[in-house]
Write a structure and sequence with these properties.
By secondary structure, the protein is α+β, with helices and mostly antiparallel strands. It contains 3 helices and 7 strands; from the N terminus they run E-H-E-E-E-H-E-H-E-E. It has a single domain, classed as 3-Layer(aba) Sandwich (Aminopeptidase), CATH 3.40.630.30.
């Protein structure tokens, strides 16, 4: 497993396939993608997991964490999260947050993240903001 910086456009296929297959392909292309840091996990030179990070001041939001279905359950997303948490700390980030799908909150809690606020719905999925402060 190798984690590398990638281009925003490298994330779109996995974002679409894993997170939003019922939406048009353009739905996964974020207007802020050009300003983000994008990371991918490669196994045998195949991109299998992605995440996009956006730093503003001393906080970072990560978005669109996704792993191909056939590679889920192997600790790949956990390794990727650990990687971006370390990168954030090196950049002086004091708070990391995301809009987590409600059914994934237990996963994020393993990284010390806590749910804050109320749930909200986007494109038929329930989300809640989760964060961790350093």
């Amino acid at each position: 497993m190798e984690i590398k910086n990638i281009k925003a456009s490298d994330t779109w296929k996995i974002r679409h396939e894993v997170m939003w297959p019922d939406q048009p392909f353009e739905f996964v292309q974020l207007k802020e993608d050009d300003f983000g840091l994008h990371y991918g996990v490669f196994i045998d030179n195949q991109l299998v997991s992605i995440v996009s990070c956006f730093i503003t001041g001393n906080e970072m939001q990560f978005r669109k964490l996704a792993t191909l279905d056939s590679f889920q359950g192997r600790g790949i997303a956990s390794a990727l999260l650990n990687h971006i948490f370390e990168a954030a700390k090196e950049k002086g980030v004091q708070k990391i947050w995301c809009n987590a799908r409600k059914e994934k909150t237990a996963f994020y809690e393993k990284f010390g993240m806590k749910a804050i606020g109320e749930t909200f719905t986007n494109a038929g999925h329930e989300f809640i903001i989760m964060q961790v402060c350093f």
